[in-house]
């Protein structure tokens, strides 16, 4: 199969903000679908690595939401009501934290892993996560941002602050407060479809050197379960 052409990011700051949010949310849904597929026939001889992959999915969601709460929600809340999204984060993380606690226990003792229980917990997460991801993207539509009164300069300032962290979770000093880069960075890259890997300047070094030889190396046993290669 020939490679899919890359889709360049829009230049309009209102559209770019929503475009990047869609890309991040797409990664989480791809991961969720992948987990539900794999858990139907879990790798019983490799549960520790499989649980590490599950942890990476949860860590990526945590990091994304923490950067939203640190940068995006305070900005948007100056002119929009973000209370619903904030409440949805709490509901999601109550279930996500229970799931991650269970996964950590299974990683430590693979005999405690239960495919049916894992499926149920992921499906319960799906029921609160996906509606939130879809509604949030609709809420930040370019027309809504313009109607709320955000200027292009304000949107560009948000993108300058948030985008380096949101797209490449963990590479900056600030981003490391919001997640383990050795989990989050490889997860995000290996769950980004090739046609959406239109990374900014410096992306070649990120894809060809930093991710495969530094960030993905520590937990390389996890990424066999990812749907896409790192390069």
Describe it for me?
By secondary structure, this protein is mostly helical. It contains eight helices and no strands. The chain is globular and about 55 Å long. Residues 21-142 form the Hemerythrin-like domain. It comes from Marasmius crinis-equi. This is Hemerythrin-like domain-containing protein. InterPro entries: Dimeric_xanthone_biosynth, Hemerythrin-like.
Radius of gyration: 18 Å
Look at the helices and sheets and give the structural class. mainly alpha
Helix fraction by DSSP (H/I, runs of at least 4): 55-70%
Main sheet, how many strands, which sense, barrel? none
| Unreliable residue runs | 1-5, 167-178
What is the string of SSEs from the N terminus onward? Answer: HHHHHHHH
Q: Can you give the mean pLDDT? A: 86
CA-to-CA gap between the ends?
Answer: 17 Å
The DSSP helix count reads 8
Domain Hemerythrin-like: 21-142
Pfam families: Hemerythrin
Protein name: Hemerythrin-like domain-containing protein
InterPro entries: Dimeric_xanthone_biosynth, Hemerythrin-like
Features:
single chain; 231 residues; 8 helices; disordered N terminus
Task: Give the gist of this structure.
Pfam families: Hemerythrin. With 231 residues, the chain is mainly alpha-helical.
Strand and helix layout:
Elements: H1 13-38, H2 47-76, H3 83-108, H4 115-139, H5 142-148, H6 152-167, H7 181-190, H8 203-215
Helix pairs in contact: 1-2, 1-4, 1-5, 1-6, 2-3, 2-6, 2-7, 3-4, 7-8
Protein name: Hemerythrin-like domain-containing protein
Pfam families: Hemerythrin
